[in-house]
Design brief:
The chain is an alpha/beta fold. It contains seven helices and seven strands. Strands 3-2-1-4-6-5-7 form a seven-stranded mixed β-sheet, with helices on both faces. Helix 1 links the parallel strand 1 and strand 2. The longest helix has 18 residues.
Amino acid sequence: MNKSIIVPVFNEENNILNLIKKIEENIEPEDEIIIIDDGSIDGTFDEIKNISHKIIKHEVNQGKGKAIINGIKDAKGELIILIDGDGQDDPSEIFKLLKGIDEGFDFVIGSRFVEDDEKKIKRFTKTALSTINWFGNKSLTLMINLLFNLDIKDSQSGFKCIKTNEIKKLNLISPRYEIETEIIIKSKRNGLKILEVPVHRYERKHGISKL
């Protein structure tokens, strides 16, 4: 299946080109990369404006959710891969998401918390995922699981793969970070087969988190 890799980005001038290079190394030539510059006020757009991928530019910041929604509208691939523009997720782990699709799942989440075969390996640090973000993620995930009869470990992961025809049926509307929760809840309601796979979360090289 050909893929559309959607990268929402806001003020990541020192991270975005390295991330795009890593994505290019881990996809096929027929796949597309769609970068949505969500009103960056640093040099992000200058960094990406001449690269040979599709660029969607928001003149003002509209939020991560709106960036993802606009990227989905333009996607031509049979699969959509979402990855944040800060470089903390590792494109070399895209294959884990695709393996889940190959196994018959409709929606695969790259989880920082689900156990893997090497349970002793630390897959994130306090600088990659702060204590307050860890606690907020865990609390929100618990609430979602209780309300919607789910068993998700990492509801706020921005690293996902989902079949394009399925995500377009969700009619997403959330403009900001709540998009992560909306995707999971609506996928559950639509009867999608959901899988979590273990991925790493690395420290950001430059800048500060927008969370």
